[in-house]
Specification:
Distance between the termini: 30 Å
Number of domains: 1
Structural class: alpha/beta
Bound molecules: S-adenosyl-L-homocysteine
Strand content: 25-35%
CATH class: Alpha Beta
CATH superfamily: Vaccinia Virus protein VP39
Strand order of the largest sheet: 5-4-3-6-7-8-9
Order of helices and strands: HHEEHEHEHEEHEEE
Shape: globular
Number of strands: 9
CATH architecture: 3-Layer(aba) Sandwich
Radius of gyration: 16 Å
Largest sheet: 7 strands, mixed
Length: 218
Amino acid sequence: MNLQHAGIGMTSARTRGRMIERLRTKGIRDEAVLAAIGNVPRHLFVDEALAGRAYDDVALPINYGQTISQPYIVARMIEVLRNGRQLGRVLEIGTGCGYQAAVLAQVAKEVYSVERIQPLHERARKLLRELKVRNVILRYADGSTGLADVAPFDGIIMACAAPVLLDALKEQLAIGGRMVLPLGTAEQFLYLVERTEKGFRETRLDAVKFVPLMGGKQ
Ligand code: SAH
């Protein structure tokens, strides 16, 4: 990642340091995840008017009714996804502004990220290119059926909530792979789905609030 990008100064590096400390206090233990979050200039992923709040631990609007996820949630999901191991190929459903994809790129060999809203997809593509994040492949598509052409994945992460677990996505997990996703409508929970030799194991984690998974492209 090119840290010479305009607007990345010592100040934001220091502010990011404080954010990492807050994430530790909230229970994030995986040093690789904390380092990855420390490497990504979150203020560049939000509108300039919101840049001053980019290192607060909150979700922020990114237009088209979507949000950039709260740093704690990004850290928590990637910590569970990683489970202390090196990740090979990862799929993200819901690129949004590309922030989580940029964080994932630091802990995975290859990240495929799918977005259904074209302007968001285009903007993420431009920013990740400027930041020289080279191991993220962005696709403009409805992610509800995953990416069968490049499956299986060691990890699948969803940044939007489906009402129920989608079989097509489950089937694209490699044996030993993990999927972390929010499920539900009015009430949502984070779930971990693990694929073993024998089948799938589902574990319910924290209560969360995500934007809904939508069908089709826009
Ligand atoms: N990953 C982002 C969060 C984006 S919010 C971050 O780093 O902060 C969730 C995103 O999921 C939105 O941009 C929304 O458009 C997208 N989304 C919703 N349904 C989708 C679908 N079926 N396929 C692909 N993207 C979808």
